[in-house]
Structure formats: structure tokens, C-alpha cells
């Protein structure tokens, strides 16, 4: 059993502790209880009060003798009898149960609404009948005076199934697109349904017409609530003939007097999750409201909204059930074990477990102290300082791990004898702390590291600009904050101490990847160095803050980003030109350097083979070879390069055609000359 203190209200978790598997034999259970202290101290209020995987819905019969729980997997219902504190029976379904209602005093008549649109009617012996509705159902309620079963779901209709006649009746058609919840007032039998649009429609089952519409979406919007979307109505509950509670999908609970269209109390869970269920609980003349979402179950005052207590668990909540006129409740959650809580402040324990009152009273009266509250843990070094090393091995010290436990009174007495001036040391320590706090407001002198001084200056400047930006409420990028923290990170300590990590400014990679360093111009660098080395007066501090404020705008200003892009492009062009110049100079130097070649002794290689062949052949043979191949032998230049000359060999047809064209050209030229001479003679005769 776990005791939780919420808002000075003690809550007892009766389901806390280890749960034993079902297949464990009685002999092994008894042996385990003897060995394991947690198993022996746990309280198993109801035997095997759990589900194979998840529990969805939980209710108690009107006579208070049976607890029905639905869950998975496989989909099933389990009935527990509180008289015997054990399970009475278990039944399985074809599909998961969405909601169910007990329509008799005991478990003999139950209606189950399943997720595949089926509605099952169960009797004492088992399933009695099964029918299907047109739309997927979400909630159901039984109207006792007319024997009508009302079902709502993913549609605008309220389906009516008369259990006396055994047939469907004409449905009530609403103005909503979908219906999420419904409830019936037990006094005047008014039927209310919650819509997806955030409205509550009231219907009179006797007149079979709509009585009114209440818009809850506008009422949920207040100065204290947080609304992120249109609030839909997810749960409804009547307290009496006039008071009605409405839960929304955005985590608000609205309490209405049905005679008014405005809520008299609005409570926000602050989680933004839908309210799954509401309940009213009387408490010492005040009415408490129990509201539950998937994370928390809260108790709060109906009139003021003041919180009373709250219950949280590791798994999400699905449903809860209050035991009438007691302080006990059961919760269905996304876990195997159903939760059982008991709050003595809300009421006594049920009659079938009245021993809980005596147990909780004893726990409240007994103030249990820890085993080692009156002892002090000391090490061997502490004993040497106190002069108590001779006590090792005696009853005054109890060995534990790497030290000893000793009586706290003995420790205080020995400490006062060994160190009588501890009070004076405490005063000096407090005075030094006060002086350090005052010094923190001054300009601190910081020495620059020997390695990467400009990088350190840049990081210091970024730190100051970030501080100014945060003080002014401006947003700073996370990567800038992380980069500025490198100076204080021990992992990058060698970056400012080891010369091997010094930044090479002449490297192309540095110029391309770090153009941001250029924004530390000479004036600002001198100013920053001056601030780090000497203390300035108040005017200079104000100037420093203003300059830092201008620097803090660097993170949010688009103009600075454009300037940074221009600097980056200029740097890239400059690096590219420098690289091309270096490559050109390297090629020129390689050309001017002498080259050495290794010549093979083979007579068929290079010039040697040609020379030997040319020496053996005659001049006529060499000329014939040159005319046939139209190629001369290669010659070697003075620098070492090789050149080759050749002439194209002309065919006889080409030579003949060229001579005929030349002859034709001469004839045409002679004709033009003769025609020109005749023309000059005619002119003279005239």
C-alpha cells in the first residue's frame, strides 16, 4: 500500500505492489510471501483484480455487490463479487466494448455497446440477444420509465430501442454532425446529448421533441482557459434536477444551472486532453466534482473551483467508478492491473472492507522514522580528522559500504571538540560569498588564451551579445548559444592550449568556412581587448552595452545576413583566384625545370633505330622510302621535345586536274586581255 499526500489529503493506493502471476501454485505463492517483503506487505483487496492487457470500462452494480469490468485481449467482461472479494465469472466477446450499462440491481441484466456497431444484451446465464445499429456507437443510456435504450454515435440521430416491445422506434434527429455523449436526469427524465460542434441539445422523451440547445463552446473560452481548437462535448453528468456538468475535448469542465445559458463555474485541467468522465461527490456539506482525463483524476469544489486533491498514475486512465457513500474508487487504465484508491477524507471504507479504516488510523497515528535518522555516515578519513579511529571495531561504529554509521550525538560532540571555531569559519564563508556576489556585478577581467586568441574574442563577444539579447527579451538561435559555450566546455580545452590546434588563417578551408570572423573589425577588437584587460568607468560600460546590443541584433537582422552572404561570395572568388594563380605558377616552374629520360639500349627504339637503318641504306633508297611514306624522321629539339614533319602524297588524277584548271585559267585571262584591247581601239576611233 502506497500513501500519497496531495494538497494535505492522504490518498491510499491499495493496488500498489507486486502482482503475482495466475499460473503460480499456492505452495510457490506462500514461499514467495515468506521471502519477499514487498509481496508480504501488499494488500490484495480483491483477488485477481486485473485484465490480460488493458481495462476499458468499470462500473458497480446499483446494489453495491458486484463490480463489472471490460477490457482486452481477448475482449471480455469480468464480474467481481465484493462479498467473496474474488471473481464470480468471465465472458468473452467478438469485439471490444465501447460502453456498457447495468439495467438491473445486480449483474443479471447488462447492455454492451461494441465497437463494430453491435449491441449485446446479457442475462444472468449469458448473451441473450444481439442487434446492430446503423452508425458506430459512442455512448448509451437506459430510460427506465419508458424502457427505451438511447444510443448515440457518429451521426446526427439518437437511436431508440424499446426493450419492452423488442423493436427500434423512430430516432430523434439533431442538428449536429456527430454525437459523443448523453445523459438522463434521474428526477425529471430530461435527455441531453453532447455534439461535436460544442453544443448540448436537450430532448423530452415524453413529448418526443427538442426542449432546447445550449452552446458550451463559447462558455469554455475564458481568461484562465487555454483553447487550441473548437471544444467538442465529450462527457455529461447531472447532479440533481438543475445542476449539469459538461466536459469538453480541450480539457475544460463547465457547470451549468439548466435555467441559465452561462456556466457558473469553469475548471481547466491545463493538459488540453478530453474529459472522459464526470462525477459528483458530497463532502462535509460541500459538493466536490471528480473530473478525469487520460492523465489525472481531479477533485475540486463545485462552487469555487478550488482543488481538493488529484490522482496520477504511470498509465493513462480510461474510466473510473466511485463507490457510493464511501471514500473508495476504482480506475480502469491502460495497464493490466485495475487501480483501487481509498481517501478517508471523503468517507469511510465500504462495509465489505471495513478493516481499512482501522489500518489507515494506525498508519496516521504511528510516525515511523527511518532506520538511520539518528545516525551519521562517516568515512575512515572523517574518523581520522575527528580522532575517533580507535573506535573502529567497537559497538560505537557500524560498518556500512565504504564507511561507518555512528551516533549523531557522538558525532556532534566530537566535531565541537575538534573544531571549536567552526562558527567563525561559517561567518567568513558567508562574508566571502557576499563579496563574490557584489563582485559579479563589476566588469570581470579575463585573460585571453595564447592559442586562437581571435576565436576566443569572437566567442566572448557572442556570449555578451546573447546575454544582452536575453535580457531584452529577444530570441536567439540555439546553435549560436551552443557555439558560444565552447569557451567554457572542458572538452574543447586543448583548442586554446595546444599549438597543434591553432587555426591556420592562410588555409583555403579557413577562408571559406569561417568568413564570420571578419565581422570582428579592428576597432571592435581593440575595444574588446581593452575591456578584457582593464576595468572601465560607467560611461564606457554603457557604451559596451550599447555595442553589445547592436551585436545582438546580428542574430535577428536580415541585413546582416545579406552582408554575410556577400562576404562569403567575395571570399570564395578570392580563394579561387589564388588557387588558380598557384596552379599556374606551379606549371611554369615545372616547365622550366630540366627533365631527364632513361633511353633503352634497344636499336629499334627512337632515333637510334632510324639512324642505324639510314646509315645502312643508300641515298636513293632513303628518298624512295620518304616518298612512299611521305614522312620524315622525327627530330629532337633543344628543350627535349620531339617534332615531326610530313607532306601529303598527291595522286595522278589530282595533279592532272590541277594542270587543266591552271590551263583553263590562263586561257580566260588571255581572252579578257584581248577584249579589253578591242574596247580601247573603238574609243580612239570615235
TrEMBL record:
Where is this chain compositionally biased, Basic and acidic residues type? 560-570, 577-592
Biased composition annotated in UniProt, kind: Acidic residues: 534-543, 550-559
| SUPFAM superfamilies according to UniProt | WD40 repeat-like
Claim: Transmembrane is one of the keywords in the record: no
**For bias kind Basic residues, which ranges apply?**
670-686
The protein's location, in the record's own words, is: Nucleus, Nucleolus
Q: Where is this region: Disordered?
A: 531-592, 662-686
One Pfam family name is NUC153
Q: Which Gene3D superfamilies match?
A: YVTN repeat-like/Quinoprotein amine dehydrogenase
The organism's place on the tree of life at top rank: Eukaryota
Cellular component (GO) terms are: 90S preribosome; small-subunit processome
Question: Where does it primarily localize?
Answer: nucleus
Q: Which GO terms describe its biological process?
A: maturation of SSU-rRNA from tricistronic rRNA transcript (SSU-rRNA, 5.8S rRNA, LSU-rRNA)
Please indicate if the UniProt record lists Nucleus as a keyword. yes
> Locate the Nucleolar protein 10-like N-terminal domain: which residues?
3-369
Q: Where is the NUC153 domain?
A: 489-516
Write out the entry's keywords from A to Z: Nucleus, Repeat, WD repeat
Residue limits of the Nucleolar protein 10-like second domain?
Answer: 371-419
InterPro entries tied to this protein: Beta-prop_NOL10_N (IPR056551), NOL10/Enp2 (IPR040382), NOL10_2nd (IPR056550), NUC153 (IPR012580), WD40/YVTN_repeat-like_dom_sf (IPR015943), WD40_repeat_dom_sf (IPR036322), WD40_rpt (IPR001680)
Family to which this protein belongs: Belongs to the WD repeat NOL10/ENP2 family.
The protein, known as: Nucleolar protein 10
Q: Which organism is it from?
A: Artemia franciscana
Amino acid at each position: 500500500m502506497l500513501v500519497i499526500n496531495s494538497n494535505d489529503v492522504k490518498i491510499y493506493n491499495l493496488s500498489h505492489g507486486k502482482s503475482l502471476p495466475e499460473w503460480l501454485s499456492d505452495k510457490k505463492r506462500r514461499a514467495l510471501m515468506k521471502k519477499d517483503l514487498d509481496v508480504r506487505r501488499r494488500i490484495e483487496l480483491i483477488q485477481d483484480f486485473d485484465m490480460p492487457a488493458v481495462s476499458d470500462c468499470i462500473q458497480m452494480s446499483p446494489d453495491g455487490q458486484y463490480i463489472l469490468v471490460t477490457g482486452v485481449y481477448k475482449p471480455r467482461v469480468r464480474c467481481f463479487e465484493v462479498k467473496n472479494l474474488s471473481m464470480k465469472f468471465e465472458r468473452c466477446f467478438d469485439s471490444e466494448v465501447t460502453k456498457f450499462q447495468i439495467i438491473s440491481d445486480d449483474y443479471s441484466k447488462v447492455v454492451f455497446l461494441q465497437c463494430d456497431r453491435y449491441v449485446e444484451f446479457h442475462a444472468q446465464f449469458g448473451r441473450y440477444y444481439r442487434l446492430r445499429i446503423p452508425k458506430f456507437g459512442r455512448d448509451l443510456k437506459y430510460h427506465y420509465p419508458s424502457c427505451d435504450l438511447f444510443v448515440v454515435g457518429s451521426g446526427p440521430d439518437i437511436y431508440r430501442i424499446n426493450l419492452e416491445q423488442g423493436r427500434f422506434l423512430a430516432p430523434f434527429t439533431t442538428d449536429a454532425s456527430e454525437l459523443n455523449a448523453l445523459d438522463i436526469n434521474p428526477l425529471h427524465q430530461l435527455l441531453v446529448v453532447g455534439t461535436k460542434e460544442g453544443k448540448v441539445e436537450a430532448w423530452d422523451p415524453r413529448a418526443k421533441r427538442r426542449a432546447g440547445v445550449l452552446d458550451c463552446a463559447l462558455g469554455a473560452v475564458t481568461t484562465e482557459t487555454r483553447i487550441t481548437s473548437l471544444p467538442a462535448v465529450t462527457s455529461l453528468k447531472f447532479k440533481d434536477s438543475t445542476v449539469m456538468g459538461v466536459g469538453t475535448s480541450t480539457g475544460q469542465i463547465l457547470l451549468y444551472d439548466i435555467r441559465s445559458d452561462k456556466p457558473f463555474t469553469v475548471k481547466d485541467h491545463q493538459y488540453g486532453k478530453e474529459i472522459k468522465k464526470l462525477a459528483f461527490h458530497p463532502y462535509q456539506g460541500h459538493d466536490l466534482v471528480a473530473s478525469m482525463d487520460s492523465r489525472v483524476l481531479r477533485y475540486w469544489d463545485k462552487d469555487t473551483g478550488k482543488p481538493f486533491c488529484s490522482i496520477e498514475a504511470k498509465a493513462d486512465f480510461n474510466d473510473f467508478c466511485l463507490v457510493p457513500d464511501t471514500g473508495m474508487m476504482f480506475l480502469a487504465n491502460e495497464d493490466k492491473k485495475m487501480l483501487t484508491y481509498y481517501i478517508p477524507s471523503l468517507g469511510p471504507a465500504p462495509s465489505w472492507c471495513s478493516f481499512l479504516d482501522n489500518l489507515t488510523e494506525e498508519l496516521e497515528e504511528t510516525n515511523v522514522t527511518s532506520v538511520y535518522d539518528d545516525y551519521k555516515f562517516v568515512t575512515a578519513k572523517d574518523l581520522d580528522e575527528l580522532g575517533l579511529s580507535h573506535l573502529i571495531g567497537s559497538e560505537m561504529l557500524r560498518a556500512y559500504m565504504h564507511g561507518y554509521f555512528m551516533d549523531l550525538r557522538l558525532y556532534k560532540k566530537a566535531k565541537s571538540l575538534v573544531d571549536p571555531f567552526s562558527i567563525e569559519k561559517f561567518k567568513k564563508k558567508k562574508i566571502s560569498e557576499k563579496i563574490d556576489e557584489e563582485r559579479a556585478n563589476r566588469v570581470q577581467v579575463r585573460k585571453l588564451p595564447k592559442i586562437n586568441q581571435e576565436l576566443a574574442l569572437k566567442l566572448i563577444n557572442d556570449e555578451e551579445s546573447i546575454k544582452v539579447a536575453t535580457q531584452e527579451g529577444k530570441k536567439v538561435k540555439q546553435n549560436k548559444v551552443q557555439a558560444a559555450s565552447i569557451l567554457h566546455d572542458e572538452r574543447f580545452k586543448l583548442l586554446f592550449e595546444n599549438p597543434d590546434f591553432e587555426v591556420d588563417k592562410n588555409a583555403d578551408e579557413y577562408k571559406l568556412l569561417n568568413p564570420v570572423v571578419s565581422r570582428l573589425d579592428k576597432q571592435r577588437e581593440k575595444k574588446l581587448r581593452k575591456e578584457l584587460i582593464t576595468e572601465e568607468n560607467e560611461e564606457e560600460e554603457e557604451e559596451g552595452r550599447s555595442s553589445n546590443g547592436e551585436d545582438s541584433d546580428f542574430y535577428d537582422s536580415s541585413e546582416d545576413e545579406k552582408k554575410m552572404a556577400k562576404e562569403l561570395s567575395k571570399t570564395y572568388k578570392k580563394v579561387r583566384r589564388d588557387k588558380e594563380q598557384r596552379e599556374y605558377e606551379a606549371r611554369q616552374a615545372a616547365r622550366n625545370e630540366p627533365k631527364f629520360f632513361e633511353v633503352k639500349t634497344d636499336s629499334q627504339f627512337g632515333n637510334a633505330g632510324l639512324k642505324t637503318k639510314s646509315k645502312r641504306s643508300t641515298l636513293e633508297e632513303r628518298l624512295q622510302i620518304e616518298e612512299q611514306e611521305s614522312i620524315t624522321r622525327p627530330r629532337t629539339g633543344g628543350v627535349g621535345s620531339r617534332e615531326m614533319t610530313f607532306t601529303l602524297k598527291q595522286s595522278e588524277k589530282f595533279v592532272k586536274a590541277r594542270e587543266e584548271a591552271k590551263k583553263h585559267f590562263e586561257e580566260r585571262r588571255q581572252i579578257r586581255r584581248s577584249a579589253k584591247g578591242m574596247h580601247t581601239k573603238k574609243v580612239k576611233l570615235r
